[in-house]
Amino acid sequence: MSTPLKCRSCGSEDLKEVIDLGQQPLANNLLRTQDLSQDEPKFPLDVWVCQQCWLMQISHIIPPVKLFSEYVYFSSFSDQMLAHARQAVGRYVEEFGLGKDSFVVEVASNDGYLLKNFVGASIPCLGFEPASNIAQVARKNGVETRGEFFGRDSASALADERGGADLILGNNVFAHAPEPNDFVGGLAALLKPGGRIVLEFPYGVEMIEKVEFDTIYHEHVFYFTLLPLLPLFQRHGLEIYHVEHLPIHGGSLRIFAARSGVEDVRDSVRELSARESELGVNSPSYYERFSEHAAKVKADLIAFLKEQRSLGKEVAAYGASAKGSTLLNYVGSPAADLKFMADRSTYKHGLHSPGLHIEIVPAEELAQRKPDYAILLVWNFAQEVMKQQSEYSSQGGKFVIPLPRLQVV
Ligand SMILES: [Zn+2]
């Protein structure tokens, strides 16, 4: 199939399709009851891999302004995320020798859940957060926040005003920025000569290996492995000198970068590059079975839903997440039978899921309404959810984990 696509990193036109998830609504666009009768926009959702630099990317980009100006994902709602942030900050302060003369910048700083740890330690810091409702919460929490997107222009303006940054952090934002050269160029423009960059993002190898196709949605423009990032950073005078593999979000990478030549490149980078080459990340065959594996997950879930319906059983879902939206819209109409979607976030209650319009209710309703099965759409928090919902399980309710292989627990 031919495509007008160009790799958003290296510019090559030699791209190969990895998976096509069909027409999908925006995964975080929850609907109010009064919006349900209106036309809901849907866009193609498919991932391609560049056969020059091996960067996985979606073809249909939604302008970030449409996606992020109001955003319902508040980081502070997950205990796991808060603990992760606190630990990371403690480590960076020590490892990079940060103090009251340092300057820390976080890209996509959300409600300030991470930067408030620097504020508490009297280390000057600032966040970029374009979602205005969330930026406001951060400012109330005492975290200086700019309501802008991060890129060359906004980064250069900040560097002119305040000097460069000793540390630039970005958790789960790099894969959302549609112009990687503008993003990494911004990092280079803002970084002090001896400064450090630390970015975290879901790891593309885990997505492929564990069939986590539901981590694909329009906000995630890229599915990063390490190999395509090395030339991207080099192009901007930066070097990835260390990499760590983290268990969060179904498997993430944390990369450390500095200006080229500032740090010796560590074994971690050589080892992961070698492992990716061994797996075949830089060859087309690596991407060939992924789509088939996803189709199998879909077929199994449809068979399960049909069987339960014929038996007169009730099935609901837990976790009104973006992941859930991708999975259920890929499954399509058989998933419209789900009775409701339970979720802990009060902001989502009374709203409806994108595409299938399933009602979102408080988490406690799972134990009260006792459906026979609850499909766990937030498998990345499976242990946390099953512990919180022990009352539902003790009454005989069963959770269904849909992937990598359908499992009833
Ligand atoms: Zn490329």
Helices and strands, with pairings:
Layout: E1 15-24, E2 43-50, E3 56-58, H1 64-68, H2 79-95, E4 104-107, H3 115-120, E5 125-128, H4 132-140, E6 145-146, H5 152-162, E7 165-171, H6 180-190, E8 191-202, H7 204-209, E9 222-223, H8 229-234, E10 238-246, E11 252-259, H9 267-279, H10 290-310, E12 315-318, H11 322-331, E13 341-343, E14 360-362, H12 365-369, E15 373-376, H13 382-388, H14 390-394, E16 398-401, E17 407-408
Parallel strand pairs: 4-5, 4-7, 5-6, 7-8, 12-13, 12-15, 13-14, 15-16
Antiparallel strand pairs: 1-2, 2-3, 3-9, 8-11, 10-11, 16-17
Bound molecules: zinc ion (ZN).
Describe this structure in words.
This protein has 409 residues and is of the alpha/beta class. The chain has 2 domains: 215 residues, Rossmann fold (3-Layer(aba) Sandwich); 112 residues, Rossmann fold (3-Layer(aba) Sandwich), CATH 3.40.50. It has 14 helices and 17 strands. α5 packs parallel to α6. The site of zinc ion has 8 residues, from loops.
Keywords:
7-stranded mixed β-sheet, binds zinc ion, 14 helices, 2 domains, alpha/beta, single chain, Rossmann fold, 6-stranded mixed β-sheet, globular, 22% strand, 32% helix, 409 residues
- Calculate Rg over CA atoms: 22 Å
* Terminus-to-terminus distance: 41 Å
Number of helices: 14
The biggest beta sheet reads: 7 strands, mixed
- Overall mean pLDDT: 93
Summarize the structure.
The chain is an alpha/beta fold. The chain has helices spanning 64-68, 79-95, 115-120, 132-140, 152-162, 180-190, 204-209, 229-234, 267-279, 290-310, 322-331, 365-369, 382-388, 390-394; strands spanning 15-24, 43-50, 56-58, 104-107, 125-128, 145-146, 165-171, 191-202, 222-223, 238-246, 252-259, 315-318, 341-343, 360-362, 373-376, 398-401, 407-408.
